[in-house]
Amino acid sequence: MAKCSGCGYVLQEFETECPRCGGRATQPAAEGGEVQPSAPVKPAAPQPRRRVTKAELGASGALAGAIYGAIALIFVIIVDRVLFGGSESRHTGLLVALIGAAIAGAIIGGLIGLAAVLARSTPAGIAVGAVTMALLKAFGVSGAGFGAGFTVLAMVMGLIYGAVIGWAVASSVMKSIKWDQIE
Questions:
Q1: Residue from 150, 177, 168, 180 nearest 70 by CA
Q2: CA–CA gap between residue 48 and residue 108 (Å, rounded)
Q3: N or C: which end of the chain has fewer CB within 10 A?
Q4: What is the pLDDT of residues 54-91, one digit of tens each?
Q5: Between β-strands 35-37 and 3-4, what pairing exists: parallel, antiparallel or unpaired?
Q6: Phi, psi of 9, deg, nearest 5
């Protein structure tokens, strides 16, 4: 068994330094003679960084965006319920509205996160969020049978909502990526 040359602590087989005082380990001689210091252990050579592919980066951005988007739209439903009495979720019920918001937020947030990371730009994510929400509003209102005036108003409101959600999701995604570790 190895002993510490400083305090005499008996070290385990895998230890090279004393956990008490930091002293060097010594090995007793085979015949009970002098104590020999153990050979120093060389640290392992640092491994070269693996290059992150564009597909992996895009997948990370889309996943982070999906999570942040789901959280953002769930937050919108909860705020609607608390501040405005649930005018948006009154017809379907709170649970169905929360599940729908999570699914829609994950899809929209995934698109926003993917665009922001691949372009390495928060404004790109904001633009994707604004355009996506405007198109969803336009198709939703025109599909419901309302006139062109309501469709234009819905698109304008979709641009505003989408830009706000796009900003929240894209800025969160851009902060969550460790850019200094990507070549």
A1: 168
A2: 36
A3: C
A4: 888 889 899 999 999 999 989 988 887 888 776 666 77
A5: unpaired
A6: -60, 135
> Residue with structure tokens 């969020």?
129
CA separation for the pair 131, 43 (Å, rounded): 53
- Confidence class of residue 147 from pLDDT cuts 50, 70 and 90? low
Which residue intervals of 20-179 are DSSP H helices?
54-84, 94-119, 122-143, 148-176
Question: What is the per-residue pLDDT across 34-61, written as a single tens digit (0 to 9) for each?
Answer: 555 656 667 777 777 777 778 888 898 9
> What CA–CA distances, in Å, run from 13 to 25, 36, 61, 64, 154?
10, 15, 46, 45, 72
pLDDT for 162 beyond 60: yes
Q: Where on the phi/psi map is residue 119: left (φ > 0), alpha (ψ -120 to 50), or beta?
A: alpha
Residue 19, phi then psi, degrees to nearest 5: -75, -15
Kindly calculate the radius of gyration of the chain based on its CA atoms and give it in whole angstroms.
Answer: 30
